[in-house]
Design brief:
By secondary structure, the chain is mainly β. It has 2 helices and 8 strands; from the N terminus they run H-E-E-E-H-E-E-E-E-E. Strand 4 and strand 5 form a beta hairpin.
C-alpha cells in the first residue's frame, strides 16, 4: 500500500508540473465537441485547396491589412448543398514553417503553432462571386497538421447575401508534402439565425423567400 501511495503521489506531482508548462501548445485531452458535432452548426461546404505559387504577383488580394508573411497562392474546389464552386486563394501566416519545409530544411519535433490569414474567392456555377477572409491557427505535429479558422464572407450577389450576415467556422488539415489543404466549413443552423427557418439542402438560401 505504501508503494501504491508513493507512485500515485509521483504521478500527481508530474501531472501538476506538466499542466503548468506549455499550456498554449499542448492540446487538451478533452477538447470538447468539434464543429461537426455541434448541432448549432450545419455544413456549408467542403473544399480541397492546392498550393500553386509562392510569387507575390499571384496573390489574389493586396498585402495591406493582412496578418503575417505572404506564404503563397493556389486554387481549389468547394462542394456542398448550399455553396459550391471553384476557389482562388492566397495565404498570409505568422511563425509558419511551411516555407522551410519546401526548402527541405529540417523542422524540430514537437508541436508548432502558427497564425493563418487566408483570403480568396469562390466562383459558383450560377455566376456568383463570393469573397472570404479567414483568421485562425495551424497546429503542426509530427503526425498531422490541423487548422482552424473563423471566416467572414462578402458578395454583391443578392442570392448569397445571407452569407454576409453569418460567420463560418472551418476545421481542416494540411498535407505539407502535397501542398494540399482540406477544409470543412460550417455556419450557424438556419433555426439559430434570427428570422430564418430550416430548409432542405437543395432549397434556395435563407432570405430568398
Amino acid at each position: 500500500m505504501r508503494m501504491v501511495l508513493l507512485v500515485l503521489a509521483l504521478v500527481m506531482t508530474a501531472w501538476s508540473r506538466m499542466a503548468g508548462e506549455g499550456r498554449v501548445n499542448k492540446p487538451s485531452k478533452d477538447p470538447g465537441p468539434t464543429a461537426a458535432e455541434d448541432k448549432r452548426l450545419v455544413p456549408l461546404f467542403s473544399a480541397v485547396l492546392q498550393y500553386r505559387s509562392q510569387a507575390q504577383r499571384d496573390a489574389v488580394a493586396p498585402p495591406e491589412g493582412r496578418e503575417g508573411e505572404y506564404i503563397g497562392s493556389g486554387d481549389g474546389t468547394a462542394t456542398g448543398d448550399r455553396l459550391r464552386g471553384t476557389l482562388r486563394w492566397s495565404l498570409w501566416a505568422g511563425n509558419c514553417v511551411y516555407p522551410l519545409v519546401r526548402k527541405g530544411q529540417g523542422i524540430p519535433d514537437g508541436l508548432h503553432l502558427c497564425t493563418m490569414n487566408p483570403v480568396g474567392f469562390i466562383e459558383t456555377p450560377d455566376g456568383a462571386r463570393i469573397r472570404f477572409d479567414g483568421r485562425g491557427y495551424g497546429l503542426r505535429s509530427p503526425e498531422r497538421y490541423r487548422t482552424s479558422l473563423t471566416l467572414v464572407f462578402g458578395t454583391e450577389d443578392v442570392r448569397y447575401s445571407w452569407l454576409t450576415k453569418v460567420l463560418g467556422v472551418m476545421e481542416g488539415e494540411f498535407d505539407e508534402k502535397a501542398g494540399r489543404a482540406a477544409w470543412d466549413v460550417y455556419v450557424p443552423a438556419p433555426d439559430v439565425q434570427a428570422g430564418q427557418h430550416v430548409r432542405p439542402g437543395n432549397a434556395s438560401p435563407p432570405g430568398d423567400d
